[in-house]
Amino acid sequence: MSGEPTPVIRPNTLPYADRVIIVGSDAPFGWLAAGWRDFRRAGLVSFLYGLLIAATGLALTVGLYLADLAYLIAPLVAGFMLVGPALTVGLYAISRDLEAGRRASLGRALAAWRKNSGRFLGMGLLLVAFLIVWLRFAALIFAVSFPYKPPELSHLLTSLLFTVDGLTFLGIGTVVGAGMATIVFSVSVVSLPMLLDRDVDILQAIVTSVVCVMMNARVMAVWAALIVLFTAAGLLTAYVGLAVTLPLIGHASWHAYRALIRPAG
């Protein structure tokens, strides 16, 4: 049943609050339904886009394993949540094309960032910076959790799940990672589609995104949880499922942006 959430802070005290629409509590499920429709309409284009991202993630994971850096695989998978938003810009472009009555194009999707390349580069570097900080934290936490002798590669999973040191690493890593993911979600959930859709600078887009999350706190918490759920489902299938779940979330995120931000002008 739909309800109207109460803003955490009075809207008139926040910058760019006049751009934000307060949505009902069931809105995220409508965004998912719209995203699924776009995925089906785009067909092979969306699937190939998701498959490309999935293949890249799998290649990075295999590379870490072959380089004897397997302890960084779990942080890398978690770190996908941090850079994931930047990878879905092409999916926003596909949804925008479908919205305008144009056929989906993989070429236009892959080149979507060119329209506002400098600002997209800035946002991308910001998200990569979060990823680097997270991986450094993960390496530090791993060193503290296993101070004497790191587990052998063949026993890494057992050591992580069934020892005090391993559970300490996972526990601290989960808390730190969740905090960073919350920040990234807040600054990117609206800013990235806005940079594709409008001629705004990075600061305006980020502030609008954060204000939108604050004004729709409960709804956005549900939306963040759904993003994590679908992304995790894709990752747990050795990245294969991302070929479907990533496009679904990307298309749905475009519809979230349309529902949350008033049209320009």
From TrEMBL:
InterPro entries in the record: DUF2189 (IPR018692)
Pfam family membership, one: DUF2189
KW DNA repair (keyword) present: no
Highest taxon, organism lineage: Bacteria
Transmembrane segment boundaries: 47-66, 72-94, 120-146, 166-190, 227-249
Keywords: Membrane, Transmembrane, Transmembrane helix
Protein name per UniProt: DUF2189 domain-containing protein
